[in-house]
Amino acid sequence: MAPRSWAVLPSLRASGAVQMAIDRWLLDQVGSGAGPGALLRFYRWDEPSLSLGHHQAPLALNSNLPVVRRPTGGAAVLHGGDLCYAIALAQPPRGPRAAYGLIRQWLQRSFGRLGSPLQPGTAAQDRHLRHCFASGTGADLLGSQGEKRIGSAQLWRRGVLLQHGSIQLNPNPELWRLLFQQEAPPALALGEGLEAQLQAEAQTWLFGTQPEELPLPAITSGRAATLWAIGANDIPSG
User: Fold this and answer.
1) C-alpha 189 chain-centroid distance
2) Other Cβ atoms closer than 10 A to 222
3) 28-41 per-position pLDDT tens digit
4) Do residues 79 and 133 touch, judged by C-beta distance below 8 A?
5) CB within 8 Å of 132: residues ≥ 6 apart
6) DSSP for 106-150?
7) Which of 78, 155, 166, 178 has the fewest Cβ atoms surrounding its Cβ within 10 A?
8) pLDDT at residue 83 above 70?
9) Of 26, 49, 50, whose CA–CA distance to 37 is shortest?
């Protein structure tokens, strides 16, 4: 995979509605063919929130957390103590498995450089999971104690790919137990160095060239709701 050019957007801390709208914007941009062939960004949520996969049924929650629906597949993710990535590719590897494999290697290389090696999960995909981090498939990455550290999901549109994922760094143990009746993954102290390492590996290994820098799109939470709609040619997976 060698796009004609790629760009990185500034990091952003914002609501789930805004973050999901921008991720859809990434897919629209690379699909238009007017700009770079790949776009990358990192982001955090401005408050603890829950995201649901596009096909997932609403959950009965014992909390007042904000809830947003992702354009991708998969199960619920608790955000707030995580770093998220999103990458859109105009010419991805052919098929979900190959694309997951390529991006998984980029993530593994980055964590390995920071002394926190990760391994792919081995569980079979289960579309009835209540939450994403209950199981780790080959699309996911696990830490040294077998805990799921990164969960990812995809949206394909006419051969163009959006993949985004949650890297659990410091999840809220009480909220995790309340929502999922399980213990949260242990905290991982990588700080701001993780984001810098991910971008460095994207430049040197994933794309092989220096990125352009693009400003964030002017998307508000009000407009975001109109951008969640999934068209007939969109294929969410997770």
Assistant:
1) 19
2) 10
3) 999 999 889 999 99
4) no
5) 53, 74, 75, 76, 77, 148, 151, 153, 166, 238
6) HHHHHHHHTT---EE--PPP-TT-SBGGG---TTSEE-TTS-EEE
7) 178
8) yes
9) 26
Q: What is the pLDDT of residue 126?
A: 66
Rama region for 115: left / alpha / beta (φ>0; ψ in -120 to 50; rest): left
Query: Does residue 132 carry a catalytic annotation?
Result: yes
pLDDT at res. 131: 76
Active-site residue, from 132, 139, 141, 150: 132
The band of 58, judged by pLDDT with boundaries at 50, 70 and 90, is confident
Q: Has residue 226 got a pLDDT over 60?
A: no
Question: In which region does residue 21 sit, left (phi positive, over 0), alpha (psi from -120 to 50) or beta (all else)?
Answer: alpha
Domains, the chain, in order of start with CATH, read 6-55+67-232 (3.30.930.10)
